[in-house]
Queue: 4 jobs
Job 1
Amino acid sequence: MLKYIFSFAIGNRNILLRLFCLAALTLSSLVASAQTASIRIVTSDEQSQPVAAVTVELRLGGKLIALKTTDERGTVQFDNLKPDAYTIVVSKNGFETLQITKVIAGNNTPTIVEFALVPQIKVRDKVDVKATDASQNNPIEQGASPSTDLRREQAKEMATRPDTVRDTLPLLPGIVRTDQGELYIFGGGENRSALIVNYADVTDPATGQFGMTVPIDSVQTINVFRTPYLAQYGRFTAGVVSVETRRGGEKWNFELNDPFPEFRFLGGHLRGLREASPRLTFNGPLFKDKLYFSQGIEYRLSKQRVLSLPFPINETVSETVNSFTQFDYIASQTNSLTGTLHIAPRKAKFFNLDFFNLRPVTPNFSARDYTGTLIDRYTFGANLLESLVSVKRADQDVWAQGSDEMTLTPTNNYGNYFNQQERNSKRVELLEMISLAPIKNVAGDHNLKFGGGVTLSDNNGSYLARPINIRNRAARLLKRIEFAGGAPYDLSDSEMILFGQDHLVVNPKIALDAGARFERQSVTGVARVIPRMGLVLMPFGNKQTVIRTGYGLFYDRVPLNVLAFDKYPEQIVTRYDESGTIIDGPRRFLNITDRVAADRWLLVGRRNAAGNFAPYSTTWTVEAEHPFTKNLRLRLGYQSSNSHGLVVLDPAEVEKQNALVLSGDGQSRYRQFETTARVSWGGEQELLLSYVRSRSRGDLNEFNNFLGSFPMPVVRPNFHTNLTADLPNRFLAWGLVKLPWKIQWAPLVEYRNGFPYFTLDAEQNYVGRPNIDETRYPNFFSLDSRFTRDFEINKPVDKIFRLKLQDIYSVRVSVSVFNLTNHFNPPSLHNNVDDPQFGLFFGQNKRRFRLDFDIIF
């Protein structure tokens, strides 16, 4: 048979040649007709940092053929396209909408198109977008009040492995956390700052505190404003933390962090669990190009050690579930809906455990945070209408380990915690905002935004207290505080806001931010009009150096716990000499809520009634920023804030009666000089270095120390002095460096002054002036590092999960070391002059290692 075929081939070679040519032509035409093209879009900001969650439209002949969003690296890819000329449109809230038409040829390599996004309120001559060229960056920052941004991927790589938004904030200049876990933002406590998630206010209606914040895995970006001169921001006197959450992508992604618990080893022996914090994140499309889903959930069991106490009575035990769910529905090219649900129940035993307060003296607590939001975005023409509905519920219970009376001594405290609380608070917020298309006239280009909203809040609960005994070192009774009266409280409040703002581009080198905000809070009876003004300049011809300055008036809301003060039990104080004889008292202190006199300002109106408080601050800033090279950007800034009308609690005599007076007379002052340098190179490698010189002074007796979830047991006279988190000098450096063998190194360095402290006598009174510069903890230094290596493993996981997943997943192994130099950073001090160890710092957190595993699909 083969012989006959061979003979036929030789004899008919011309026929075979023709057949071969015909087949080749047919095959080539088929290949040409089936040839496809790919486009990869890359989006970045003016610092060449990737911008995620950018909407990318792909149009052909004016018709929308595909719609996607960029991932964390600022990229998105369209495959299986026919070669043609496509129009690419990129858009994101807060940035200019850009587009370009690009001819895409069919080949095996995707055509890369890069966009450098420019904020909407930037001064500019012209925005040029060029394919494969992202060097045409406009150097001006966003308006007169830009935010300091922190991306999710940046935070997750840090050695501290932050779990929530709250954990990430101390990475930013001007924000510090005390050893007790309290956050201070530009000199003010949490209750003086605003926390916004996707435009919704999520602070606790009762206390103004942040509470449980969103899991870091559900975050897209965290923006911190020192002084936003945009009138849309309000209800704060310190700073604003604005969080943008993460939406689902075009493909399903799964990530499992810290699946294995951390065990406790003592003396070379296993002694149970120390910590478990598994986190699961998954997101993707439920219906392609229509409905997207994102879920982040964390369970955390933590046993925090107090090193100055012996095992097993040296641990606070806390348990938390933190879940954030988001749905994004693309109804049409002009309309989208976003719905989120944040659920965060938590509880803790032996809270605030330390050397002086052993387990029996500490409280337990249980808290539940629930927040649901629905946001509708509708585009008509070049205008954007945004509507928001938000519901916040925050409940908290605090109780003692037993019913014994609490006793305070110079060396240690004993008995049981004196306070018990039950609190339920709720807030419903409605908000409408419209951003208009730019308007041109002789003054320049106007970018106008208007909005208004209504907020309804309520807070009900009860506050109970048991006696407190103050004894000296020999256990002799010096003072006894008893409590009488008190009743359950039930408060409601309504707020109304209106605002209007304009970003005016006068010319390519000058822009103005101007606006005003109207607020009214019914429970205080105060209404005010709040003006703000900002200026941004490019003074030099190279359009590189940017100067920003501004002045603003910022009013804060009054949390509902403040207005419940008259329902709290009153104190009855009796003092004794060393023989046990009464030398003063019993003296009953009335709970009095003061009123503020009528304002001379035409912009503020208040009713003449108790509790008509209206805390406010006047702030001005000046800042200059310059990119010295493509890899180095330097920013210098100064801030001056003066706060007035703060709510403080102070023992006083009113009409010959003893009283604890809650007044609106508090003041504080904050000054900050900041130098920040950002060094980036080689892809995602960067280092952020900052030095902050600041002073924070004010009244110590702010209401949150006594009317919060864990009130102080003794009310001392108020002092105007250094505040708790005053740090004259602080240097901070962190970032990401790639080492050989695919290892990533995330260093974190902090050097600062120690926090100020106060000295007490045997009767728990201040000795001298508290918190002065001469009484500070030792200077703090810490070098933390995290070393990470990803190991990719081929596996057809789509067959396991029956989902369209990638065929590669990674196992991330990381080793972290804390306080590498083993520097002496004591968290505790013997500060009572009647204590034999007075002046001794102790409780050192020594060098520690941790091993983590993550699984990334």
Job 2
Amino acid sequence: MASSAQIMKAAVNTFDEWTKFTTTVHAVDKKYPFAVKKEILASWARCNRAKVEPNVFRIHSRLNSTALQVMLKRNSELIAIAKPFMKNLYQIVAGSGFVVALTDVRGHIMEILGDQDMLKNPMTESFYQGASWSEEEAGTNAIGTALVIQKPIQVTGPEHYCRMHHCITCSAAPIFDPQGNLLGALDISGASSSAHLHTLGMVVAATEAIMAQLDIRKKNNELNVTNKRLTNIFNTMSDGVIMVDSNGIITDLNPIVFQILDSVPGKAEVKPGASMECFFGSKHTIIRKMLRCKETFADIEIMFDVGNGLNHYLASGAPVTNEQGEITGGVIVIRPIQQVQSLVNRFSGHYGTLHFSDIIGESKSILEAVRVASLAATTTSNVLLQGESGTGKEIFAQAIHNRGERSAGPFIAVNCGALPRELIGSELFGYAEGAFTGAKRGGKPGKFELASGGTLFLDEIGDMPLEQQVALLRVLQERKVNRIGCEKEIPVDVRVICATNKCLMEEVEKGTFRKDLYYRLNVISITIPPLRERAEDIALLFNYFLEKLDKHCCHFEVSAKVIERIVRYNWPGNVRELQNVVERIVSLTEGRMVTLDNLPKELRDWQPESIKESNRPVVEEPSGINCMAEWRQRVWEENERKEILVLLSNHRGNVSLTARAMGISRNTLYRKMKQYAIYN
């Protein structure tokens, strides 16, 4: 370790090198062969290039008061952290003429500690608040050079580029923030005769302590921000959150839990400091298991008796452990089951996609059905849809749902005729855990619960067994369901739309359908006409399905005979059968022309009496005036009939365009189509 005497001896040699450097003209980029530390020599070169005068004695420039205040405010955090360490350093050098200085990133002194006479001491008279110690201002010095090379350095005596500083020794180290950005420097300066290598070590240790505190401050700020974010999430999230300690004692509740408990009688004791048994009742063992065995749990059903029924919630929980893996508590999340059901319905397809615009037709009967259904959609009354199979009853049900106030809720369809008799009850009303052999653990909600807030569509209601009709009637009257195996009632808010292809009044007379349930369902009755009774819509529907199913854009041309056949066919399967026929045509037709050969065999071979009569051979022109006029009338009518069929084919069944091409009204065209038996 070098002593002060050795440092002074080295300073004499350095002075000779400094004299030689400052009195000789050198190129800026030349390698100087001088016997000094390379950091000092590099700094001298920078000062030479910056045209710093080495032999001029002058007071350092300083910041004006405004700039000084701006600098101090900008660096207030660094100053506050560094001050205690500066005081500790000064206590070591107090009374020795040394000063402890803190500078900003440009070398301006922000804080300084020293003896009372430091401003009168010629060695330290340039150390004052706002003074600049950059290399461009003060030449080579520990502060300015440390900021340039971003490393600790000690500059003693003639190692300073400016001769006025040869009487002092400086030891400085740069200060960085946690991200590695340069903030400033810490320096100890005094008489060069008191120079010692330990001084630089003390400065380095102090800067490392300062940077450690900056890192701690940063992490504390990050923790505070994170804590505030978590607190905001805890207080504003839509789910209830309960925090418990390792003994199952409640430590914190968020506002949603208090809202949940406000409606539950006898739950006022659930608050911080209470046991989880107050909240979970008999299911508190789940919490104990979580806290003892580190087992998480998910979607455990909890029911609260609120006087007029049960409120349902799902609970999920996970233990909280420390760094040693020891359980310190747990977090339980409480979620209203309606939110979960809404998500399940949304992603499982339990929502309506069809609207009244999807109902194709211009006939009076279908327009009347749409009109009544549109009015029914604005109400909350039960709706009964009656019509043959394939007429589109579910389209009407979805359209009513989507036009009404419950359009944002689920739309759940149940085919009562497709469910086994013994499963209808559990599907509609749900069941409790252990209700029967094979019952799912935790029970299962029924379709009424899943449809809460939306619409339940009961298709083929006429096929529901009598024993379940009693339960359905009770739910419709009281708006509550009892799960199978559970005595407690669950409130449900559901609109019911039913559909049937049977005459329910006849079923009532037969004794297979309850009269009281019939009148409960038949609040608004809508009859959907079969396709054969709205033949004027057949061509429109055919054209609609053809365009919809023609995914390869083949743009089929349909022969007049095909149009005639589909219009006159009686369609026992109604719209569903027509759609299937069009799908077959699109799938199997080679080329673009659709002929009778592309129709299914049962449709191709179908020959009603009206077609047989219209296809009888034309007799030769008879004699006689009356017979002649009758024959000509028949020929004219046959030609007009063929013209209508051709135009219908060209316009793909569009009655309006066909009437416009013929120059007649739509009503006139309908009358002629009926006259020529183009439809029944």
Job 3
Amino acid sequence: MIGHSKPDIQKTRIANSMGRARILLEALPYIKQFRGTIVVIKYGGSAMEDPQLRESFAGDVTLLSMVGIRPVVVHGGGPQISAAMAAEGIEPRWVDGLRVTDEATIGVVQKTLVGVINPEIVRFLNGHGAAAIGINGLDADLFRAMPRDEKLGYVGEITSVNTRLIEGMLDQGLIPVVASIARGEDGHVYNVNADTAAGVLAKALQAQKLVYLTDVEGVYENVDEPSSLISRMDLSDLHRLLEHTDGGMLPKLRSVADALEGGVSQAHILDGRVQHALLLEIFTSEGIGTMVTP
């Protein structure tokens, strides 16, 4: 008989199953390596707003927890805060890329982060079988802060971290979801940059990994050259890059430098628009985005 034989559906199924098994085997060394370690994840951008990406993120974090890795999620909520301010007729003002936070604005920030965004993240994580619990920087004095700059109002710089609450949750198998506000020495509530809060918390917890989900592929040597994406760099490369970095990437890179100098083992800046970005970075040899090591 001339020509190809009839496709064997059973063989095709076996081949597909073997491919899936190879993926699991590739992940096994990384599961062994990182089991029991803390991974702090800054969650925001498109990954927070797109329904499919939310589902992907929730599945990734749940899987990390179920294989023995201990994730901690830190979130902000810039676009949602701006929308809530607009609904209350408050005009946003910015200084050096930071939101000026007066008495009215800090009320909106607290309501939005703690009352809307935080429970929503907890809800969809738990919907995937996780054991997530929402907290904020006021709980058990997790974050204490001082005013960052008088002209910014209630924008804070974290001065101390009380990790006992989070460590207790992790020991119980829970996933803390942290809203980035803090209590000031003066008793006021302060708005804290979530990128900075994630880095400070990772350092305080001596995390294995600090992960930022962003709306870019990673860190570029030259932002105008897509081909200049940096897959891996160390602290010396990072300090050199900081000399000519500005915009939204700057607080992330500064936080990465501070965290690595403070004992965090690895930092990752990932494209949160890619489904399962967390799993691809942690459980594959190729990874995605940019990894920074000491």
Job 4
Amino acid sequence: MSGHQPFPRSETSRSVRPDFPLQGIPRRTYLEDDRHDSQRSDRSGKETQYMDSVSILPPYTIGRGFVMPEHLPKGTDEYHIRNEQVRRPAEYWRRLLPAEVDALRRNGNRCDNWDLVLVTDEFEPDMIRGNEFFGLVRFGRVRRAVVAHHDLRLPTGVTGSRIVSCDLGADVAIHCVRYLAHYIVGERCILHNVDEMFCSGRAKFGCGIVKDGEDEHARTWMNVVNESGGRGILPCDGMTSADAYLWAAFRDDAALQRKLVEVTQRSFDARRGRYGTIGDQSVIVSTRIVKDTAIGAHCRVEGANALKNVTVNSSGDEPTQIGQGVELVNGIVGLGCRVCFGSKAVRFVLGNNVALKLGARLVDACVGDNSTVSCCEVVSSLLFPGHEQHHNNSFLIAALVMGQSNIAAGATLGSNHNSRAADGELLAGRGFWPGLCVSVKHSSRFASFTLLAKGDHPAELDVTLPFSLVSNNASRDRLEILPAYWWMHNMYALARNPSKLEARDHRMTKTQHVETDFLAPDTVEEILSARRLLELWTGRAYLRATSVKKAGAAQALRKGRELLSGPVEATAGLEVLGEGIERSDRLVVIRKPAQAWQAYGDMALHYAVKNLLSYMEGNPRATRASIVKAMGGERQTQWVNLGGQIVCQNDVNKLIADIKRGVLCTWKDIHRRHHAVWEAYPLSKRRHALAVLCEVLGAPRPTKEQWMVALHRAGRIQREIRDRVVLSRRKDFDNPFRQATFRNRAEMDAVIGTAEGSSFAKAVRRETESVLRSIEAAVKRG
């Protein structure tokens, strides 16, 4: 109904002062008797001016003046954006017939101007009872029917409600909504027992934009990673953890920062007058306040306290649920989310398929897809996909956690600032797992798949060894690190991680791409760097033990590599010390350095051969020689975890350059680039795998003999993975205290199964057989 104008009076109209303008309603009172209220006297008797917090306006102003004249484009009225949103031709509605007006009045309805109430040809007045209507109200089909959602059944129609300038879809059930203003309600929606649901003319629906006529101070910033605000980002609908990271990480690039503000502003409608929306078949019941909020289709809101300045994405395939006691202010809720049981969020972004529940408190935080946050407090944090924090009393402040993480109960991460301002940070690579009651100080950094054993860490940490177990040995007053712990001692949990993450991924819409394999270019580069550190530290330990005082890093590296590549006994008596890991004077002891160095080598080779075998399966004629010819080249050593998607640094640089040059003008453009990089990622990873194989073999390109050795070694590693999965799981079953709660072993097996019989162990055995067949085929190709 484009450009729809207010209707003239009819014989049935009860409009008061029809010549009163719908725009430009004065802010001050209009009653002569109230003029003196604009001035008050203080105790000294001096007259003071003040701004009314509650004004007195004429009785015919409800539903008018949604957008002030100065913010309306020439030739439009306050309904022009509303009509764009509804997308119905003018002839879709008609005026009420005199008999229909009489019937509505008999049913206890009141209206300041019946000419502004429009209906379709399917209109049953008896379904509209006990309401007040103000402004332009348009009904879809109203007929005698019942709408049902699970066990909730309500008659269609509108009863006991106050409706101000709204569009109501076909077959809605709106009952006991005490104030519903400036909303477009979709078809077959249920609104029942709602206190307030209204939208202002400058509503932003959680996006960090400014509306026409507003200044920059009106933006809503979200201070992620650093409480000082130095990494602030603007929340916006559709924001992914990659977007948030790109914005928060590259703060030294002023041109990029300016462009991202422009991109956000350009990506959303800055005009005033946009109505709030309730998508088709959404249900909102027993809820107190919904203000400046857009709600998608098939959403259920039940018992919420307040939704203010929020976009709630929802669809038939990925419905979102918001439950009892929830309060959401200034933020974005992704598709398929569950927010319930007293959770609170202020200045936030939730990705798709996120659960926020059981009293969780979220402030200035962005939570990536497929994550769960409950029973805890998260402030000023950026969490990548696959984050699990569902235990009581855990505390995560000013952190960047790069996904696939698990925060245990009682963990206080970032609770201690070591500077004179709240500007410390915590950076954790993917797979971060702090144990029970771990306390970590700002500022600290952790490599991928770091496990922190229970303890109170007294100083800042910079752990650069991935897949490590970090323990605070209070009895000996030292820090102990066991590198490659997961690979050597808990293969069951490590190998199960990718399948577990994939099983939890219920997204139908995958805007954010996620690498779930624990061995990928980012972690493998960390592994190769960790091997060099172990070589350096082991060499220095040997030189200290032999009283060699004047030895450089090169000599230490050579000696360390010689010792670590030999028998394990060669390093048995050495005390290998980590350097630059803890900000203290106490020792940092590296445990089992030789076993860890060899484990790291196995991990790198397993990654390389696994990806090259995958390439050969997709290319039946591929051989070692053709692979080297097609994918040979310099190894890319810099990889970025871009919100869960692993991206080569060169691609990140090009992305940033194209944003700054204006090639990528909107967030949709940026997301399309992410998709393109993801499509090219498998080949990029296989090129990297070949270069890693060359690094492990110590050759510019693998010879046929080296390739055969690598294949046979990869077969051995795969069989070890199979066996270690069962062995690490069997530790749980062989624990005598685990057996103490059962009458006998048969009962225990019936309750929790066996290590060998678990579904995951069977899956690993099948995978091993498949890998061994692929290795056999590669050996035949040569």
